[in-house]
Amino acid sequence: MKFLIVDDSNAIALMVSEMLKEMGYTSDRAVDGNDAVKKLEADNSFDFILLDWNMPNMSGIEFLKYNYENHLTETPIIMMTTENKPENIREALMFGASEYIMKPFTKDIIESKISMLNQFKKVA
Ligand SMILES: [Mg+2]
């Protein structure tokens, strides 16, 4: 499986890509929402998108809204966030996020969310 990691932090993007590599997955990285739009316009074959909330230029929620209006991709999006306010989580889910994980997270947490979403894809 191929992941698009969208995060402005080099350290977090590297950590997540290492976790995915250990699970046997490949990844590409976008530095913000604008970059993610460009990457997805060029290649829409990702299996999952891991999306940060706080980013310059285009934030995670702005990316979700852009995607909701422009139908850029139907790839499942997992929000990676420190936002734990219920209204923020609700807004992200309303604009198309499939799941969210709280930072900081472990490999096991990513792995369980992915297997849950894969189960859902098989049923749908
Ligand atoms: Mg960030």
Which properties best describe this structure?
alpha/beta; 48% helix; globular; 124 residues; 5 helices; single chain; Rossmann fold
Write the layout of secondary structure elements.
Layout: E1 2-6, H1 10-22, E2 26-30, H2 33-42, E3 48-52, H3 60-70, E4 77-81, H4 86-94, E5 99-102, H5 107-123
Parallel strand pairs: 1-2, 1-3, 3-4, 4-5
Helix pairs in contact: 2-3
The structure holds magnesium ion.
The site of magnesium ion has 6 residues, from loops.
3D architecture notes:
The protein has 124 residues and is α/β, with parallel strands linked by helices. It has one domain (2-123): 3-Layer(aba) Sandwich (Rossmann fold), CATH 3.40.50.2300. The chain has five helices and five strands. Strands 2-1-3-4-5 form a five-stranded parallel beta sheet, with helices on both faces. β3, α3 and β4 form a beta-alpha-beta unit. The longest helix has 17 residues, at 107-123. The radius of gyration is 13 Å and the shape is globular. The mean pLDDT is 94. Bound molecules: magnesium ion.
